[in-house]
Every structure is written in C-alpha cells, then in structure tokens.
Amino acid sequence: MNIKAVAKLANVSTATVSRTINGSPKVSPDTAARVRKAMETLNFVLNTNARALGSGRSNLLGLIISDITNPFFPELVKAFEDIAVSQGKEVLIANTDYDPDRTMHCVTRMLQRKVDGVAIMTSEISEHVISFFLKRKIPVVFLDTGEPAPGISRINIDYPAGVEMAMQYLTQLGHKDISFISGPLNLNSAKTRYQAFMESSAREHLSAKAEYVQEGNHRPDGGYRAMQRILALEQRPTAVLTSNDLTAIGAMGAIFEAGLRIPQDISIIGFDDIQLSAFTEPPLTTVRIPHKDVARVAIEALLGTQDPISKEPKDGAQYKIQPIFMPRRSAGPVPGEAHSFKRRRADRLHA
Q1: Domain map of the chain by residue range?
Q2: Which CATH superfamily groups domain 59-158+290-323?
Q3: What percent of the chain has pLDDT over 70?
Q4: Phi-psi region of 91 (alpha: psi -120 to 50; beta: other; left: phi over 0)
Q5: 98-134, pLDDT tens digit by residue?
Q6: Which letter does DSSP use for residue 312 in this model?
Q7: How far apart are CA 331 and CA 227, in angstroms?
Q8: Does 59-158+290-323 match 3-46 at the fold level?
Q9: pLDDT value of residue 343
C-alpha cells in the first residue's frame, strides 16, 4: 500500500494525505478522520526512510537535552514538539545526562537518522561535536554555547538579568547575607549564573562570603546537601538563591528538616519556573525561563539556516531570551523585620 492508495480510498489528494500525516492544521477534522480511517483500513504506515532517500529530507528534527528527569526539559520538549508538528516535522529526542561522552553518542544517532537539523539544548558540547555538524552541513542551534556561523545559530538565556532581578528583590526585602547554590561549575550555564551572582553581590555591596556559595548538581539531592552545609555555618544567611528550581526544592527539604520556616526564618528563590514550583508549600519564588520562546526560536533557527533548494547552510542567527521574575511566597523580609518592612512599603505607597 502507498500514499496514492490511501488518497483514492479517502477520496482526497495525495497532498491532503501528506498534510494529515504531518499534523497540518490546514486539514479539516472530518477530512483528517477520513484519511486516518483509510490508512487503518489499508494498514498503511509511512516509510520515512524511503521518503528521506527520495527527497533528501527526513522531515525529522533532533533535540538533545541534558536531563529528562528535570521537569524543565520535558516542558521544553513538549513546546518544541508542538511547534515542530505544526510545521510538518517529527522530533527525535536524546538525553545526555550531563555527560560529554554520551553527547557524542546522541549526535551519532541523529546523523544515522538523517535529521534535517538539531537543537542542542545542553552546555556539555565540545568543539569536536560542533565541527561534526559543520562538515555535514546540518543546521544546528545551540543553547548558551557556540558562535553563530553558516548553519549554526545560538540561543542565549540572559541569566545575568534573571539573577539581578532575584538579587534586587532580596535586597529590597532587607537581605544582606545571601547564599547561592550553584549548578556543576564545569557547565557553561551554571558558571554564568555563579558569575552573575558574584557580580550582583559586588554591585549591592554584599559580603559574598566564600562559604555562602555552595556547589550543587542541578538536582534535589544536591540542593539538599548544599543547604545542609549552609545551615551548619556559624553565621547563617537570611536568604538563598539557587541555580534551578529542583535545587531549591531540595534545599527547602533541608530547611524544613532543620525545624526552620520559609520565609519567616530563611527566604529561598529558584530559577527556571517549572510547573511544580507554583505548588510547593510555600509556592516558590523563582525566575522563569520561557521554554515556549526557547522552543520557538530554536525551530525558527533550524528552518531558516538551510537553503531549501541548494541545501547549502545560510548564516546562523543569535537570539536572546529574557527571563521573567515570578514573586511568590518563599521569599520575604529579613527575619524579625517583617513589620518594619510592611511599614516602609506602606510609607512608599503613600508618599
């Protein structure tokens, strides 16, 4: 059975069958249902390998992420796939688990499947991997790494702006002793957030004691252990900024285990704004990275950096994604100053 037989049975054009298979919104629900019924009757399954050999294009986009267990990435995957399907593309997903060696294996899988482009949403990328794609003229978009070149685009998350928003919020609440739990400092994105915290501390004339900065692993267990080390300090900070929401959630567990309250005894702020963050107790104040915007510009970059006729790569682009501050209830005034903070805020409102 082939696509022509499906079109004949469904009484539609082969183009309509193709659009239905690709999930195009241009096909009416009734027509799409008729096409799917014809495909089921004929036991038809599209041979994507044959299509790739015939057209030179697989209509397949690769998406490489760091950690499928981190809710930020499934939310990004969903947004990426929703947009890709609307463009008639399928998605092949690979997970590196923050391992540079495993990244190369993921890249090999993408090449074997003859993907039309790859979005690499992870920091653990070597120059060798970048040259791999350059030689094969496959469009690539990187997150927070690489430099724009023919066929290569880059998405930059403005982490410093997000860290600055969080720090300003805490200092306005009266906090001067602020701790930071970073991600693994061998990752570019984690290092960037750490540097932003140090620079913001300097601008705000905060002490930024060495022991106030603890390294985590972007996961709850790392946040939990880092927070235990912070709570064991002789002079405990009044607020903690974390490198991502999973770290913050782990840190909250350590705080509660120590018999302390959030934010009455210690304030905490996350980074990413995964869906779970709004449902912790108290709800987590955090910095949102708009994953839908990341997915949209990633696909825009992939589809726009290869000439559809010559297949030659066009110049890549550079995109900047602005984070959004999400104040909730996990950050409050310095312990013992809640009443004076409310009074200062009321004075400002009535000034």
Answers
A1: 3-46, 59-158+290-323, 159-289+326-350
A2: Response regulator (3.40.50.2300)
A3: 87
A4: beta
A5: 777 787 778 888 887 888 899 998 866 666 677 777 7
A6: P
A7: 16
A8: no
A9: 47
Angstrom distance (rounded) from CA 185 to CA 342: 38
**Residues of the chain under the 50 pLDDT cut:** 53-55, 339, 341-343, 346, 349-351
Q: Which of 329, 248, 327 minimizes the C-alpha distance to 282? A: 329
- Written as six digits, the tokens of 72 are 């930020």
Asked, as a colleague might, if the bond just before 263 is cis with ω within 30 of 0, I would say: yes
Calculate the CA 83 to chain-centre distance.
15
Phi and psi dihedrals of 337, rounded to 5? -120, 15
- The topology under which CATH files domain 159-289+326-350 is Rossmann fold (3.40.50)
Q: Tell me, what's the pLDDT at 127?
A: 67
C-alpha span between 64 and 175 (Å, rounded): 39
Q: Tokens 């991600």, residue?
A: 183
Q: DSSP letters of 151-195? A: TEEEEEE-HHHHHHHHHHHHHHTT---EEEEE--TTSHHHHHHHH
Both structure tokens of 49: 């390998």
The CATH architecture one would assign to domain 3-46 is Orthogonal Bundle (1.10)
